[in-house]
Design brief:
Blueprint: E1 21-22, E2 31-35, E3 50-53, E4 56-60, E5 66-71, E6 81-90, E7 98-107, E8 110-117, E9 121-129, E10 132-141, E11 152-160, E12 163-168, E13 171-177, E14 186-193, E15 200-209
Antiparallel strand pairs: 1-13, 2-15, 3-4, 4-15, 5-14, 6-11, 6-15, 7-8, 7-14, 8-9, 9-10, 11-12, 12-13
Length: 210
């Protein structure tokens, strides 16, 4: 089960508040960053399992179980709303599929993410080293995270100081306390897929708002 996928560690200063409060999607009046995915911008780097065209970023597995992430190296952000819509249009083993958006990113070994699975669960995770991933919010079922392949999930993280509030489909699901990186944060995407020839994740409407 996804709930047991990672070994969770303690985190000083962690505060988790679970709630069911509605909010508008991707709050903010100024667009700081937006990728319309006409093509894969060089700022994402190169990944054989990521391609962009026709307004969407498509993440694949190439016939093998695959877990990866890409960070956008174009710019950094302070307090902001990090947003994206993720979908699982072709996944049979939904228990092995995960998609997320990165916030408070420093580099490939240091970032936070809000992630969802089509089994109807979400998590907030914190990568602190190459082989260590903490779970400030363990995999949790919530009605805002619909079950089954084919669903779309609007993900949003609102950061202010050392607080990050997470939303799925406009519903507030929790809040965590952390330590934003000095000099601003990177954003990015995370995905994990089973060994299925046609399985893929699609990302659209990726933006950062202020």
């Amino acid at each position: 089960m996804l709930k047991n996928r990672y070994l969770a560690g303690g985190l000083a200063g962690l505060a988790v508040v679970l709630a069911l409060n509605s909010a508008e999607a991707c709050q903010g009046s100024k667009v700081l960053f937006e990728d319309k995915f006409a093509a894969l911008d060089p700022s994402w780097g190169t990944d054989d399992h990521a391609a962009a065209a026709d307004g969407k970023l498509t993440l694949t597995t190439a016939d093998q179980g695959w877990t990866s992430h890409i960070l956008n190296q174009g710019t950094t952000f302070g307090d902001a709303s990090y947003c994206a819509t993720v979908a699982f249009p072709a996944v049979k083993d939904v228990g092995s599929a995960i998609a997320g958006i990165v916030f408070w990113g420093t580099d490939d070994d240091h970032y936070w993410m809000l992630a969802v699975s089509p089994i109807g669960q979400f998590t907030v995770e914190h990568k602190v080293a190459a082989n260590r991933l903490l779970q400030p919010v363990r995999w949790t079922e919530n009605p805002a995270v619909a079950k089954g392949a084919g669903n779309h999930y609007d993900l949003e993280i609102q950061t202010k100081g050392n607080q990050a509030t997470v939303f799925v489909n406009g519903t507030k699901l929790g809040q965590v306390s952390g330590e934003p990186p000095d000099g601003g944060s990177l954003t990015g995407v995370y995905w994990s897929l089973p060994a299925e020839a046609d399985s893929r994740i699609e990302v659209t409407a990726l933006k950062v708002m202020k």
